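Quick illustration, no need to memorize.
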Amino acid sequence: MKTIKDDHYLFEKISPNGIHTFSSPDRFIAHWHRLGEILYILPGETGLTAPAEVIAAEITYELHPGDIIFIPGEQIHEIPDGCKGKLHGLQYDTDILSSHAEFLPYVSRFGHIALLKHSDQPELTDELIAKFEDIHALNSSGTRFKGVRSVSILCEAFMLIADYIDTKYSTDDSSSVSPSAILAINRVCEYVKDNLTKDPSLENAALYIGFCSSYLSRTFKQVLGISYTEYVNKCKVSLAISLMTSDEHSITEICYLAGFNSISTFNRVFLNVTGMTPGKFRKYNVL
């Protein structure tokens, strides 16, 4: 990874094809990445003289032993000084959730949770941390199919979180979406990823699954919590970022390779999603 002192951004060049575990250094400067991130302190941790701090989306959270913080992908966050080795974490490809139709109604609702406190939910946090620690152990082992096993354990963890959401928060509009419609939205997500460079329109996506465009637009927002256009733009920006990992292509070339039809649109959308222009992002975050 590469850190930049002046703008304090860090881009973690990690393959999204798995789950990556780590223990925190003394600090992480403010950084951005596509992967979702989970940070926690072991319930029996005694080495902290003060709560650990994590800043996410400009909100400061204090973590005590047994607490868990969930940071969605594409959210700028940082860890101030004083947490070396105390925070345990994992990063995961958010497609692990969105690729499973049964998780789709929860994707936006997972955003209800930022900090899960051990003092409020001791049994749940203990069970979740035990699963995260199992993933840590797998990743440092030579176990066969450890990647598959890690994904399975992470899905088990998110099923526990989904059950918690069902009991704590009132259901939203996504609960009224039929299972067949949820499966159709899953197919739409795959359609978008397969057709990014063809600039997939809402109308073509609706035709692909046999929905009218207005129904698809409404259902997509109900299930995923973002509009169809927002989803397409995020996928295009993710593709653009992957193309920036080398200097093979210019910014202009990347614009069109990622499915944008103009530099002005590319710059505007990229800035909206990442908080940085494409040129600045490449300058500060790509080796």
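The chain has two domains: 2-168, 176-285.
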